[in-house]
Amino acid sequence: MSTAIRVAGASRQRRAGIGLATPAALFFLIFWVVPFGYSVYLSFTSYDLASAPEWIGLDNYRRMLEAPQFWHSIRVTLVYVGGAVVPTMVLALLLAIPLSRPGRARAVLRSLIFIPAAIPLFAASMIWRVIYSTGGLADRIGEHTFGVQGWLTDPDVAMWSVLVMVIWKYLGLYVILFVAGLQALPQNVYEAAAIDGSRAVRTFFLVTLPQLKRTLLFVLVIAVTGAFNSFAPAYLLTQGGPARATEVFPLYLYNNAFSFSRMGFAAALALLLLVVLLALSIAQFRLIRDEEDR
Amino acid sequence: MERLSRRTVLKTGLGLGAAAGLSPFLQGCGDNGESGSDDNSGTPQGTVKVWMHQEDLFNQVFQSAVADYRKQFPNVTIEPLQIPLPQLDTKLQTALIGDQAPDIVKTGGWTLANYIRKRQLEPVSLPAVGAKSYDEFADRYQENALSSLTFDERVYGVPIDFNTTYLFYRRDRFAQAGLDPDKPPTTWEQVAEYSKKLTTTGAGGKKIGWQWFYTTPIWSELELTPLVRGLGGRILSEDGSSSSLSSPEGIKALEYVASVGDPKLSNKNDVYGMFADGVAAMQLSGVFSVSLTHSFNSKAVFGDTFDCAPVPQWASAKEKTASGYTWAWTVPAKAKNKFTAWHFINFLQDRKVTDASLKTAGLIVPTKDWQKEPVAKGKEFQILSDQVSYADFGTPVPAWNEMAQALTDAIAAVANGKKPADKAAKDFDDAMKGVLG
């Protein structure tokens, strides 16, 4: 093949590549780069959704650091993330181990446990509002254990009530992910462990967990980023109350943007959230990559 | 922040405002000429999108009014959209910036200042509502109903759902507690005393006397206003430029809020549901609670199971006080069919519709002589009629949402024992410094 033909072929290939990539690039530019750039710009402005944005430099960032509610929402969010991610993952893993074994009954149980994840969050929240209302199911169960509580109305209790619903809602999803991970593990390792006389608990810690690390890290990434971004459960159950006890960071951001018309300030909050999530995701994916390299 | 002035609708003021008010309307019609649906020719036509908060009882009245209007004006299509109350404001804000404004919105009078400061609402169109002058238009309504919708001498809405607060109480619970159902408390001190007598814990769960709304911003203002004003204080200064909740009156009012009611109780229908179920024996509410309570519990019958009375006063109060509010039909500045929107709003002021609103949903359209209508003969309407003269309809501030949320936080913090009243009041005042000024 002559050089001229090879060059023409390569050129044609390049044009085709550009042609095929252009729609995706345009989509990315229009729906990601432009809004992101505009958000960055807005974060340096005072903008009330009506008049034109007014440049105020770093004022929004300074006000953010000085606002007690900002720090309060950070604390609330950290409690929320820890309270949602750790118990959900531990419970999901404990349930996934028996459910990953073959059997019709286990398949049915896997489907049942997934039901809450399939229920729309709005509907689930309505169900839980009824459960938590005075005289509701939570009170009936609670009167023999915790006592009757203001499940969503007591600032000391409301966050834990929201977390119970969140764990219930997402547990099934993580169980399914762990089941898939467990079922993909090579069985010969377990057979070898059994021949060596390893007991179930020892096998779990020395064989299952190390092999499941990639799945664990994957679930951890989606759980942590999901929890940091979580807005709907607190909004639907408590609107961030009582006394802002459940005002997680995204809800604080939303209130500033849409309830108080402080779009510039909210854009600064959104950028901070983006930076935190990016840093977390990079760290977590680096962990995954390190695992793959080993 | 641009300061808005609100003043009582004096005829002279309205006369002056007429020309100014009409001008932007006509200008607005011209601006929207390209949409093809707006028409200043005096012929209602096209589609009118109406947004309002969810209110099932009023919706029945509204649907019937739409059917009647369509019979007279078949060229008009009315598209109502019911939106949950907590989302109405947010949805409207985003629609207004996205040029997706509806033609009519039922807007809370307390949020009007924010929209008007941003020039997002249209003054009333005189031709469309069939008035020759603002004087003539103003003559149709009670003075203080229109005054809360008037800014810089322009009227920005037609009032509906005009209310003062009341004391609602359960006659059956009073009788069970050995209290005379015909003698409801007239002072806040009595409310506290009765509340203790009405608090019981039995097989049916805890029952209490008084209950507050602890999480609803509009109710935070409506509840705290009579308490603070009755003591001679104010939550916000008259011009809305500063707050003074950390005054002795504000602190005493917050302490009172914490002393009665139970913030731990909850119901899917909030305090309305607790009252309808008899869990709470007393609450502050509007006249709509007559119908609403019965709709939540068909066994609760007004005048028999439950009743209403004027808002209690402090024993030492020199002047009576109550809180009040009004909703309004408004037209966004970016609405595409303004003339027909105002025309339809005017149709909703028809006696047949206003009587049905009152009878079916307990919603008052405060026309000049609304209390003389046969359907307004009930005791509840007479109380409202008396209270209107001294009710405080709140201070209009553009940052009302932020102010009311901070007030709700203060109430919740004190009621739940998270902060002492003086600290919560000071935190509120501090938070308002950067918001109201």
Report on the structure:
The complex is a heterodimer of chains A (294) and B (437). Chain A is 77% helix and 1% strand. By secondary structure, chain A is mainly α. In chain A, a hairpin with a 7-residue loop joins β1 (45-46) and β2. Chain B is of the alpha/beta class. Chain B folds into two domains: 11-164 and 325-392, Periplasmic binding protein-like II (D-Maltodextrin-Binding Protein, domain 2, 3-Layer(aba) Sandwich); 166-323 and 394-432, D-Maltodextrin-Binding Protein, domain 2 (3-Layer(aba) Sandwich). In chain B, α2 (56-72) packs antiparallel against α14 (351-361), α9 (217-230) packs across α16 and α11 (270-277) packs across α12. The longest helix of chain B has 21 residues, at 11-31. Chain B is globular. Classes of the chains: A mainly alpha (294), B alpha/beta (437).
Write out key terms for the chains shown.
heterodimer, A: 294 residues, mainly alpha, 2 domains, two-stranded antiparallel sheet, 13 helices, B: 437 residues, alpha/beta, D-Maltodextrin-Binding Protein, domain 2, 6-stranded mixed β-sheet, 5-stranded mixed β-sheet, 17 helices, 43% helix, globular
